[in-house]
From TrEMBL:
Matches recorded under CDD domains: HDc (cd00077)
InterPro entries given in the database record: dGTP_triP_hydro_central_sf, dGTP_triphosphohydrolase_C, dGTPase, dGTPase-like, HD/PDEase_dom, HD_domain, PHydrolase_assoc_dom
Keyword Cell cycle belongs to the record: no
GO molecular function: dGTPase activity
Domain of life per record: Bacteria
SUPFAM superfamilies (UniProt xref): HD-domain/PDEase-like
Protein name, entry field: dGTPase
Length: 450
């Protein structure tokens, strides 16, 4: 069974020096994690990455950035409340200098970073990258050069694994503390496993690419993360709180955005949020607010508070089963409001996620990302692997890659997986607007300055 003292081991993940770096200044180590994330370029780029809706001109809807900030706020509340429970149950933690605020800060930092690996155009972007390698001639052409596990990574792009890669990068990683990195990793397994258990929530997706497997194993050793099978690890317990914070926010906030844009009626939204509150819901008290937006904001705050309380109670009830690995499901699936959340999810699929603006955005995302991957993948393939086809057009395209893109050491005898990972880093890191702008330029649809 895992134990909390080991799970909260201090130290930073720093591959540049080959060992962890421990710093002591005025801020706590976990507070430093939060600051490093919020000031990083990948986090700032989330301001122009789609959450669900394309950004309208007048009505406010959430971007990946505002969503991440709200998930972090909810995560802090969850973590601090659970921290108070843990310190009462395990007094030795306090003697080690651990406070409930530290645990709240770990969950807040991991929650802040939870979408940092997501590509442009939301989940459609993930599918577009995967489909390029599965179906496009200049994606599929790489299969013969890479291993089966590497091919599985390429054909199943996963934003969670991309985020882990970004956070632990030897050159550009943020050197976060071990507990924050582990709490960030909701799916501690590689892309291809032979013992995937559909009943285990942590097996639903994957959390690291094959070339970060060594880094995750190092992290698991530091924190004493046990395995649920030969290839899959148990989640760090705080990852359940990060997941709950995300589940709470996207369920409630997507509904609010859908109502703001007129896709869901105000009355239906009030009814669904009221169902979460149960006996606490007093609709007559909403009459003192002048606008529907104010009424909805009050209900949203109350619903989030209710879900936080129920999720904390569920975690505390299952804490020992989480440590042993016997509990492996979403906390929000085991709370009293679970049925109400399920109704919101079902309605969101019908009226929000399949609405015309969302579907149009997804269609554009497929076109843009496939187009960018095509021109760059084709040029790289011609330069290093089918050299007889290399053209002036390919040369011009490759000059658009970042200055630090690794252009040396590749030929038909070398495995191109690291090269393709760098290309995916470049494209998945783009904002929606930059991806669209570059696509238009490389396709000759628009010229610079025109």
């Amino acid at each position: 069974m895992m134990n909390w003292e080991k799970l909260l081991t201090s130290g930073r993940f720093d591959l540049r020096d080959g060992h962890s770096a421990i710093e002591t200044q005025n801020r706590s180590e976990i507070e430093r994690d939060y600051d490093r994330i919020i000031f990083s370029s990948p986090f700032r780029n989330l301001q122009d990455k789609t959450q669900v809706f394309p950004l309208p001109e007048h009505d406010f809807v959430h971007t990946r950035l505002t969503h991440s900030l709200e998930v972090s706020s909810v995560g802090r509340s969850l973590g601090k409340a659970v921290g108070e429970f843990l310190l009462n149950k395990y007094p030795d933690l306090q003697s080690k200098g651990i406070s409930s605020s530290d645990i709240g800060a770990i969950v807040a930092a991991a929650s802040l970073a939870h979408d940092i690996g997501n590509p442009p155009f939301g989940h459609a972007g993930e599918e577009a990258i995967s489909d390029f390698f599965k179906h496009h001639p200049y994606g599929f052409v790489w299969q013969t050069y890479v291993s089966q596990q590497e091919w599985s990574d390429l054909c199943n792009f996963e934003g969670n694994a991309q985020g882990f890669r970004m956070l632990v990068s030897k050159e550009n990683g943020l050197k976060l503390t071990y507990p924050t990195l582990a709490a960030f990793t909701k799916y501690p397994r590689p892309s291809q496993v032979f013992e995937k258990d559909p009943k285990r929530r942590s097996h639903k997706k994957y959390g690291f690419f094959v070339d970060q497997k060594e880094e995750f194993e190092m992290l698991s050793e530091k924190l004493g993360l046990e395995k649920s099978s030969t290839e899959c690890f148990l989640r760090h317990p705080l990852a359940f709180l990060v997941e709950a914070a995300d589940d709470i926010c996207y369920s409630i906030i997507d509904l609010e955005d859908g109502c703001t844009l007129g896709l869901v009626s105000f009355e239906e939204s009030v009814s669904l949020l009221g169902e979460i509150l149960g006996d606490k819901f007093q609709p007559e008290k909403l009459n003192k607010y002048n606008s529907d937006a104010q009424k909805l904001a009050v209900l949203r705050a109350m619903a989030i508070g209710q879900l936080i309380g129920e999720s904390v109670a569920a975690f505390c009830k299952e804490e020992e089963n989480i440590l042993s690995g016997d509990f492996d499901q979403a906390l929000t699936d085991s709370i009293p409001a679970a049925s109400a959340l399920h109704k919101i999810s079902k309605l969101s699929v019908q009226k929000i996620y399949r609405s015309k603006p969302v579907l149009e955005k997804e269609a554009a995302g497929f076109q843009v990302l496939e187009g960018l991957l095509e021109v760059f993948s084709k040029a790289l393939n011609h330069k290093f692997y089918q050299t007889e086809l290399f053209s002036g057009k390919d040369r011009s395209i490759l000059r658009l890659l970042p200055e630090d893109f690794p252009m040396e050491g590749w030929d038909s005898s070398t495995n191109p997986y690291p090269l393709l990972r760098e290309l995916i880093d470049f494209i998945s890191g783009m904002t929606d607007k930059y991806a669209l702008s570059l696509y238009r330029k490389v396709k000759g649809i628009a010229l610079p300055g025109v």
